[in-house]
Design the sequence.
């Protein structure tokens, strides 16, 4: 019986295939952030410096992406002075503390799908060296050797010690209130 079990285990190991790692093209991939306040919203980009997608049989199993917080941009303000003021403020200790925490990242811990196209990705989002789990929907298309994954990740900024003008922590903010949820529209373009 032990020999049969050993042979079965060896045969199974011989036919099991390790996941492949697709390299993400960081110049074609994008992360667009949106933050809302009582009087409007702002948006911009955070460059992806490194990313991978783990897949097997055309299905995403895992992956990571890293964001360069030092290169965060604001794209909705056309006045150069106002743009610089907001960009610098977002990089300050009121928000992302970029001087101390120049990278943020996301690591997939679970990828659920019933059809190989629509996923619920769960993973660990790390901002300011604070890691919290998040889950968000992602659409994946595979065309030839190319993989494109798009989704909207929403996180509560106060979970990452970003409390500036948060209604969860301060009262009487009136039209100065900034909502806690921040949206990241993520597009990863990879090749097998």
Sequence:
């Amino acid at each position: 019986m032990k020999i049969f079990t050993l042979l079965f285990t060896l045969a199974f190991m011989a036919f099991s295939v390790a996941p492949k790692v697709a390299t993400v093209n960081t110049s074609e991939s994008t992360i667009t952030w949106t933050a809302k306040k009582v009087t409007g919203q702002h948006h911009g980009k955070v460059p992806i410096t490194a990313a991978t997608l783990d897949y097997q049989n055309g299905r995403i199993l895992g992956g990571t992406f890293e964001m360069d917080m030092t290169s965060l941009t604001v794209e909705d303000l056309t006045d150069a002075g106002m743009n610089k003021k907001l960009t610098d403020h977002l990089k300050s200790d009121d928000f992302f503390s970029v001087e101390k925490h120049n990278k943020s990242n996301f690591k997939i811990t679970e990828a659920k799908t019933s059809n190989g196209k629509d996923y619920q990705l769960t993973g660990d989002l790390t901002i300011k060296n604070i890691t919290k789990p998040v889950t968000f929907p992602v659409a994946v298309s595979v065309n030839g050797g190319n993989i494109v994954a798009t989704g909207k990740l929403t996180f509560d900024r106060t979970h990452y010690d970003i409390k500036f003008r948060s209604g969860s922590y301060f009262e009487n903010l009136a039209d100065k209130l900034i909502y806690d949820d921040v949206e990241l529209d993520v597009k990863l373009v990879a090749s097998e």
